[in-house]
Design brief:
It is built from 15 helices and 10 strands. With about 550 residues, the protein is of the alpha+beta class. α12 packs antiparallel against α14 and α13 crosses α15. The two termini are about 50 Å apart.
Length: about 550
């Protein structure tokens, strides 16, 4: 298909039923791809509204965009090659394009996944199930010359990708800010599942490569014990060099993958927040000053850096510990028992000793933002605090909020210090116990000297990595607090999007209020028994004291 091919326009009066069915199937496919729960009634209402407002002048792609906007689905039109789209397709990133034919409506082809050699294709104007298709066949279906030809595509995304409960009807069923941080982290990383698995595989391979040193040391000790040949020494040295060089290459690749994940996190959070700020219900701010609330977006940098550190160093420590313990268990059953005891101690350090750490980290973060909000108020109203009493009030409140932050920081650090001391205790106990048990096994000829030295190196790597895990724990707590702060933005409830259908009339409209009552919280009425009317063509001004309900009306 030539990119210059004109986009087909649809006459809604002639093909409305066919077009409505097509757009509805596209919305169903798209919502499933981005994790939205599509409500049939809301979807059909959005389709009907999009077709009615098109006046027969918009293309099919324009109708997708218009209907999707009502449901929280973003359709972005781009020019890409078939090859690029196949690489970008994933279970969380769908793509659409038009296949022009002879029918009343064009065919719509959707790509919902890829497996390296092909893509999962759905023909959305037919009832046929999706099927895997190779790129040569896909190129023929689209009427392109090669897979590198540029075609017009539509990328499908959720307008609010960080919502905890997706409902594609323009309004969240919302209980404000009650989602645990761990659930938010899962939601944030869900779309990065493919790249996360790549990072895990790289970390596992790096963990295996780090065992080159203890295994080579074991072989070297055993070789030296039986002779002084130089050839085995050279072979072992080259093997260690190759293994560590390969590990360095994998570390570079993993760092690149994590960098890509960081960029996507930033863009996804920015997109979600921008969408919500434009459509947030007024009652969703719950007493917060909106610009001050937006300060929490800056925590996206903490989320990026914390996620990167955990994915690089945290995964390395985990894989190194797991593989090292497996190697110890292979050496001797007593060392398997040693592994079990180490695991029990690690669990004790992580969970019982770390109880309450996430809670105190969140409280510390809230205290920080409360102080930031007060400093912003001082900057917004400098004249108010110029007087002696005003200055005293400003300093007193700042001191109170700073003291509150110090209180929660002290509580949080006590928990963190407890875990750090526990990890150092584990290092001392594990190294000493292994030396004693390993020496006894060597004396009884149940373990070779080379195996004992290798085991000591493995345990040193595992335990030293775990002692560094104190930094990883603090990073995880910072990540939990930051994701909780972003939740204040991504939890903002949305206004219902869409239009209200009015009866057609040649006469101008009038506005009539009859005994109108309204409140934001369901308790305190803003409007109570309001009666007034505005005649067609009238110019009216609303006058009233502050809080009378002028903005609400």
């Amino acid at each position: 298909m030539d990119p210059s091919t004109p986009t087909t326009s649809i006459d809604p009066q002639r093909a409305e039923s066919l077009l409505a069915a097509l757009v509805y199937r596209v919305l169903t496919f798209s919502s499933a791809s981005v994790g939205l729960e599509l409500e049939e009634e809301a979807a059909r209402r959005a389709v009907s509204l999009a077709i009615r407002e098109s006046h027969g002048t918009e293309s099919v792609l324009d109708l997708f965009c218009r209907a999707g906007q009502e449901l929280g689905i973003v359709f972005t039109r781009v020019n890409k090659s078939i090859d690029d789209v196949a690489k970008a397709a994933s279970p969380h990133s769908a793509w659409l394009t038009i296949v022009h034919g002879q029918g009343a409506t064009p065919s719509v082809l959707g790509i919902g996944d890829s497996n390296g050699g092909g893509v999962l294709v759905s023909m959305l104007d037919a009832e046929t199930p999706p099927r895997w298709m190779g790129l040569p066949e896909l190129t023929r279906v689209l009427g392109a010359g090669t897979k590198r030809d540029q075609l017009e595509w539509v990328a499908v995304e959720s307008a609010s990708p960080l919502s905890q409960h997706h409902h594609a009807h323009g309004q969240d069923e919302h209980v404000y800010h009650n989602v645990p941080p761990f659930e938010r982290i899962k939601t944030l990383l869900k779309a990065e599942k493919t790249d996360l698995w790549v990072a895990v595989i790289y970390s596992a391979a790096i963990g295996l490569m780090t065992l080159v040193v203890p295994v080579a040391t074991q072989s070297l000790v055993n070789t030296v014990a039986f002779g002084t040949l130089v050839q085995p020494l050279v072979v072992l040295t080259l093997a260690v060099l190759a293994g560590l060089g390969f590990a360095a290459l994998l570390q570079g690749l993993r760092t690149y993958v994590v960098e890509v994940i960081q960029r996507r996190i930033f863009v996804r959070v920015a997109t979600d927040v921008a969408h919500r700020l434009l459509r947030a219900r007024k009652d969703g701010y719950e007493g917060h000053h909106a610009p001050e609330l937006v300060n929490r977006f800056l925590d996206v940098a903490t989320v990026q850096k914390s996620a990167a550190l955990l994915l690089i160093d945290g995964l390395s420590i985990f894989m190194q510990t797991l593989i090292g313990m497996i190697l110890l268990a292979i050496y001797h059953p007593w060392l398997l028992a040693f592994d079990v005891l180490m695991l029990v101690f690690i669990v004790i350090v992580l969970f019982p000793m770390g109880s309450g750490a996430i809670y105190t980290a969140i409280k510390e973060s809230k205290a920080k933002y409360a102080l930031t909000a007060w400093l912003e108020e001082l900057a917004r109203h400098p004249l108010t605090f110029k007087s002696a009493r005003g200055t005293a009030l400003a300093l007193e409140q700042a001191n109170t909020l700073a003291s509150e932050w110090l209180r929660y920081r002290s509580k949080h650090f006590r928990i963190l210090l407890r875990q750090i001391i526990g990890s150092f205790a584990l290092q001392a106990i594990a190294s000493s116990v292994l030396l004693g048990v390993g020496g006894w096994l060597v004396i009884n000829r149940q373990l070779t000297l080379g195996q004992l030295i290798a085991a000591e190196i493995v345990v040193a790597l595992v335990v030293s990595g775990f002692t560094k895990f104190g930094k990883q724990l603090e990073t995880f707590y910072d990540l939990s607090a930051a994701i909780d702060k972003l939740g204040y933005l991504t939890d903002l409830p949305l206004e219902r999007q869409g239009s209200v259908s009015l009866r057609r009339s040649d006469r101008p409209a009038a506005v009539l209020f009859q005994n109108v009552q309204f409140s934001y919280d369901g308790r305190t009425p803003i409007l109570n028994g309001v009666n007034w009317s505005i005649e067609p063509g009238a110019r009216v001004g609303l006058l009233g004291h502050s809080g009378a309900g002028k903005s609400s009306m």
